[in-house]
Amino acid sequence: MVRRTANSLVGEYAKVLKARPELLRPLFDFLLAGLGEGADGEAASAAAGSLKAVMKRCGKLMGGALAQLAAELARARAAGALRAGAELDVLEGLCHVASGLEDPAAAAGALRALAQPLGDKLAEYASAGGETKDIKMELDRLTVVVRYTKLKIPSQMEHPTVELIQAVIPIFDGILNHIESNASAVESLCRCYKHAVRSTRKRSAPLLRPLGTQLLARFRRRPHAAYLYAASILVTELARTDEHIADLFQLCESFSIETFQQLQTFDQYTAMPDLVEEYFFFIARFLSYCPGPLLASPVVDTIVQGGIVGLQLRHREAQSGILTFFEELVSTGIETPHNKQAAEYMARLEPVLAARGAALVGGLVGAVAGALPAYALDDRDAGGSAAGVLWKLFHLSEPALRTWLVPAVNQISASVATVAEKEEFTTKLMNQADRDRFCDVIYDFARLCHQRSRKWHQR
């Protein structure tokens, strides 16, 4: 217990050590010795946490010791001295040290040195298979490397993280042959892709086609939601560059076709809420970054119809994804300083809303009145909500919303709202120019309906 406390205490002083580099060597040796205490896993874990803290704070002062640190980690791992979380702590610390190297070539070499043994082990698993838990652990290690090794690489140099992922894409394909039935393991693999793309941002462009192709092919075999999330990160990082939009749209359209092959009945929505959630967040992200191609495609009508069906789903995250999608969809037609193409988008959006607006508003009003689930009825700070979609529609076209709203409100059961209350709600709502007041009207009416509905069912 004394050694564990001492190990933890060093980490608390990591910030001070940055200003007292002469203390680094003895304290660092003390922590490294702590890793060897296999008999006391808690003490070793405390040493690992403090090593991470020291390396994160003082990484630029420790580049010369990187090889020794990596060797100590390998030794502790081989001896079984570290719990999984503690090992990842030390590995993260090593990544911070590598990130602090000023010379780009040295930093790139450090990344390769950290990743090479992990890639070699993953290649073995790709060929011969292995225990899923062991494969996941190796994937988690590689994810730490690509996530926390943040390199400043000149544009004329190939980014080493991109080179690393290019090398592991075929290895991951082999691994997926062994783990694709395990959703958690697939998530671990896709998490590695996510952080690799995020850490390289626009420099990840060479990954777009090979990674997109792999994600889509694997999704066709088994529709894991993780593939959609990984694809959405490509949109986030690359959609601001015009040259990538065509490839991203092709990916979006292909995923849409495959998704709705899986979601042909409401029972399928109910059975795969994670797929519903990630798909609609993926489409919302695409609309946020580059809506033009999707709005011009016939597939947008299919997506809207699918979203309307999904409003009935009793799953908080899935409904949040759907409502976020509808907010982004309607927002494309609203002119703002950041949306100068609103008129063009509106021309493409109008036929879709003309065909589906009544059903959409009917679904939203059903949620407000309690006939449908409404987990995100009024969530002004966290993205999609029923009130948010109605507000966007009001802002887009007040006459159109009124046309759809009145018959939808009239369909509300008399057991939860009288004719006078429904008329008052419609009148109040359509006379609110402020978003907060608009949402408050919806919230108050929803509370009335839900209270009445509970009393009705208790009779």
Automatic annotation (TrEMBL):
It is found in: Nucleus. It comes from the Eukaryota. InterPro entries: ARM-like, ARM-type_fold, Importin_beta-like_NTR, TPR_TNPO3_IPO13_3rd, TPR_TNPO3_IPO13_4th. GO terms for biological process: protein import into nucleus. One of its GO terms (cellular component) is nucleus. Pfam families: TPR_TNPO3_IPO13_3rd, TPR_TNPO3_IPO13_4th. The keyword Nucleus applies. Keywords: Nucleus, Protein transport, Transport. Coiled coil: none annotated. The keyword DNA-binding does not apply. Belongs to the importin beta family. PANTHER family: IMPORTIN-13, TRANSPORTIN 3 AND IMPORTIN 13. This is Uncharacterized protein. It comes from Heterosigma akashiwo.
